[in-house]
Design goal:
heterodimer, A: about 400 residues, mainly alpha, about 0% strand, B: about 220 residues, Four Helix Bundle (Hemerythrin (Met), subunit A), globular
């Protein structure tokens, strides 16, 4: 934990982060993520993808940005004007602010809050409000439907997502992302433990749902409700939603990397030599360069996984979406808190990560985790097969329901 | 600097609170309420309690305001055109009631008595810098306070489990009761005989546990020819 004094240097650092990071780097990352997604999706569909503007279509995002900025901004006549203009800004702010506590390397963090994780959750919980206001203020039935779907989905998946971070907080003993990162420098990545793996999977699934991407893109399902909450948005206001979506994909990948994959540490279970050349500025820069490169590689991997999922899976049905959150993810992540407690007692509290400890802990909690996952799925199948929950529940054959 | 900041934030908070009360459009009133919650969070930050600020945003903006909006959508006209008007006869009693609550709160907070052995929670103390000064020795309470500021999550957790455990459990009980009540209400409404619906509309209508289809219904049914 690091206390900052509000002197000129601090202000300068914050201003630099704000200007360089939030105005140049992150929009640039978003632009090339869009390019990457189009390329990846094209490969999956046996196409070439953007290839006209610049070599390999590399200038395509810039062309798109210019197009979006120069397009006319239309506010529907019956729309609530102020709220309509405010909503995309709210969504984008929420996506931007998430990045403020992510430690990209040693000392390479915009703000180190003692309760960074709570801040992160709080800030990301503001985006449903923006999405809801966007849908409501558009005066469009499709927008409203999309907004309602979005709020229901985001609120539901927030629960398993937050519950999945509890093991990490328990093991690190702190809410600060920097401390969590430091602890993983000492103890190896948290994903290499059965409860950690389960929490990681839950967090990633819930995270994909939180950023409204396929298979959880019901709020903007273009084949059902046109574009959901941003149907009535044109030009750069639509661009802001677009920016926010990709930025939150980047953000959720960063957070997953920090929480479960040890930030930028290249090798699990190995103490990373933070002072490589004896604590000089050059060594710190070198270490940070390595950390940042590995960090971005991991983030890129998660981004690719999300594109991969999007190119592969169809959209979920609304009832299955809710069932999956409340009947599978929430019970599993609550049980996982207990497993994380067992892991803490067996491995982390004895102090120091030894192989014997790790093996014993993995065996005990591994059996528990596998049993919990199996039981959850079994019980849910039995529940579906036993009787229809409601009289006018759509008659789905039990076989298809249990095929998940 | 801090006092100017406080004045600005307090003014914004008051203005948005007035906006909440005076706004005719329910969703707009909700939006003002969100801004008010945000001003409160800013006040927490001014008090060096950024954990509380984050919790404030998480609980009040992330959960309460969203549920409020959802409630408005579910119970009223979906586009929130329905303006709220206070009957004139209720204005004076309402004002009187509000003043009474304000008086009770103000007097109560100003004259709060601590249980023996505890410091009163409404006391005002000076705020030394939380940066540790190496040179001069500091009293114990400064170190304690720095600890509380730096590790607020832990301090609040310990307090909730020891000093305020009864209040904490009571609040939990109250919320559980509210939850059970809400489920009971939703369940009774759901068990009423309904006309048969198509598969798309019926999808996801569990026993009151699934808001989106409930919310979507009036719009969806008005869309279908």
């Amino acid at each position: 934990m690091q206390l900052v004094e509000l002197n000129f240097q601090t202000w300068l650092r914050w201003a630099l982060w704000l200007v360089v990071g939030f105005a140049v780097v992150f929009p640039g990352i978003v632009a090339y993520m869009v390019w990457l997604e189009r390329k990846v999706a094209a490969r999956f569909q046996d196409r070439i993808g953007p290839n006209r503007v610049g070599p390999l279509g590399l200038l395509q995002p810039i062309a798109d940005a210019i197009k979006l900025i120069t397009k006319e901004n239309i506010v529907p006549r019956s729309a609530d004007r102020v709220v309509h203009l405010l909503a995309p800004i709210l969504v984008l702010t929420s996506a931007f602010l998430v990045m403020a506590v992510v430690p990209f390397g040693v000392g390479l963090v915009p703000v180190d809050l003692p309760s960074g994780l709570v801040y992160l959750i709080a800030v990301s919980s503001m985006s449903p409000l923006g999405i809801f206001l966007a849908g409501w203020s558009s005066r469009n039935k499709y927008s409203l439907l999309g907004a309602m779907r979005a709020v229901a989905q985001l609120v539901s998946y927030e629960v398993p997502q937050i519950l999945a971070t509890i093991p990490v907080v328990l093991w690190a003993g702190s809410l600060s992302l920097v401390t969590i990162f430091d602890r993983q420098l000492e103890f190896g990545w948290y994903v290499f433990s059965p409860p950690g793996l389960l929490a990681f999977a839950t967090f990633l699934i819930a995270g994909v749902a939180e950023v409204n991407r396929t298979p959880f893109d019901l709020p903007e399902a273009e084949s059902e409700i046109i574009a959901g909450y941003h149907t009535e948005y044109t030009g750069m206001r639509f661009g802001l939603f677009f920016l926010a979506e990709y930025l939150s994909v980047f953000g959720i990948s960063c957070v997953t990397t920090v929480l479960f994959l040890g930030g930028g540490t290249p090798i699990p279970f190995l103490e990373f030599p933070v002072d490589l050349l004896g604590g000089s500025t050059a060594s710190l820069a070198l270490v940070n360069l390595i950390l940042l490169a590995v960090f971005l590689l991991k983030v890129l991997f998660f981004i690719f996984v999300m594109f991969w999922i999007r190119a592969t899976l169809p959209r979920m049905r609304v009832d299955r979406l809710m069932n999956f959150a409340w009947k599978y993810l929430v019970p599993l992540s609550i049980l996982n808190v207990f497993f994380a407690g067992i892991w803490y007692e067996m491995v982390i509290r004895p102090g120091g990560l030894t192989f014997a400890n790790w093996l014993r802990g993995t065996l005990v909690t591994g059996v528990l985790v596998v049993a919990a996952v199996y039981l959850t799925f079994l019980l849910n199948r039995k529940l579906v097969e036993s009787k229809p929950i409601d009289a006018d529940w759509p008659s789905v054959a039990p076989a298809t329901e249990s095929a998940r | 600097m801090a006092s100017i900041l406080f004045l600005v934030i307090a003014a914004i908070g008051l203005a948005t609170a007035l906006g909440t009360v005076l706004s005719r459009n329910l969703v707009r009133a909700g939006l003002y309420l969100v801004a008010f919650f945000f001003a409160i969070a800013c006040l927490f930050v001014l008090l060096e309690a950024e954990f509380l600020a984050a919790i404030q945003v998480l609980v009040y903006i992330g959960a309460v305001a969203i549920l409020l909006m959802f409630g408005i959508m579910l119970t009223r006209d979906t586009l929130g055109d329905d303006t709220t008007a206070i009957p004139v006869g209720w204005m004076i009693p309402g004002l009187f009631g509000g003043l009474c609550v304000f008086t009770v709160l103000a007097v109560g907070i100003n004259n709060s008595i601590a249980p023996s052995g505890w410091t009163p929670w409404s006391g005002t103390t000076s705020r030394p810098s939380i940066i540790k000064q190496e040179s001069d020795p500091e009293p114990a309470w400064v170190a304690e306070r720095r600890e509380a500021v730096n590790d607020m999550g832990r301090v609040i957790g310990v307090e909730l489990m020891t000093r305020y455990v009864v209040a904490f459990e009571l609040a939990g009980l109250l919320l559980t009761a509210a939850l059970v009540g809400a489920i009971a209400l939703a369940h009774r409404a759901d068990s009423a005989p309904k006309p048969p619906r198509s598969v798309e509309q019926a999808a996801g209508s569990g026993p009151g546990a699934d808001p989106p289809s409930e919310a979507g219904e009036p719009v969806a049914s008005s869309l279908s020819p």
